[in-house]
Design a protein that fits this description.
This protein starts with 6 loop residues before the first helix and ends in a 5-residue tail after the last helix. Helix 2 links the parallel strand 1 and strand 2. Helix 2 packs across helix 7. The chain is mainly alpha-helical. It is built from seven helices and two strands, in the order H-E-H-E-H-H-H-H-H.
Length: about 190
């Protein structure tokens, strides 16, 4: 485990490591990968990507010390954080996570505007009748509404977000623009 407690410690350590700090990525172009590239860009740290075929092998190498850091989703990190095998130093999203209220966001630690979150959503084929889209959206909203469902999802590291199909479309479009910019700026190429 790297001897760091927060973002400032990580930046200082990276500054003392001329070859750069190795970070794990479950694959090229994943949220984990792009978030770390944004972190490197925004802090000036030299970080070296070690790309894996999936998150499991990356997490094992993080636990074993072969890599120094990586962004992890809550589901993958939870048991390792609780056991003390990993230390969370920041949240990449715009707000703190209820399960880890003492872990500040990167924005709170000086990276204003840093907001990278993994997300999933339901999509249908273009041309699907709006009546069907609205019915599916209503069913989704109903499914995530009960407190027990929201609690179970939160335990799994998922924050269900409702909204309209138009809001989700706008969100996906904004995320695509943001991620495309990082890919271009950092010269990321598919394997």
């Amino acid at each position: 485990m790297l001897p760091v407690q927060n973002l400032q410690d990580l930046v200082a350590l990276a500054g003392r490591t001329p070859a750069g700090l190795n970070y794990g990525s479950p694959s090229i172009g994943t949220t984990h990968h792009l978030a770390t590239e944004l972190l490197a860009r925004d802090t000036g740290m030299k970080l070296v990507a070690i790309t894996y075929k999936g998150g499991g092998p990356a997490v094992q190498d993080l636990l074993g010390g072969q890599i120094g850091l990586m962004f992890l989703d809550r589901a993958s990190a939870r048991s390792h954080l609780e056991s003390g095998k990993l230390r969370a130093i920041a949240v990449a999203g715009s707000r703190r996570i209820a399960a880890y209220p003492n872990v500040p966001t990167l924005a709170e630690q000086g990276l204003k505007g840093f907001d990278v979150e993994g997300w999933q959503g339901f999509s249908v084929r273009a041309g699907t009748p709006q009546s069907v889209v609205r019915a599916l959206n209503a069913a989704y909203q109903k499914a995530i509404a009960p407190a027990e469902i929201r609690r179970k999802l939160a335990e799994a590291g998922i924050d269900p977000v409702g909204g309209t199909p138009e809001q989700f479309t706008a969100y996906m479009q904004a995320e695509t623009v943001k991620r495309r910019a990082v890919i271009k700026e950092r010269g990321i190429k598919p394997e």
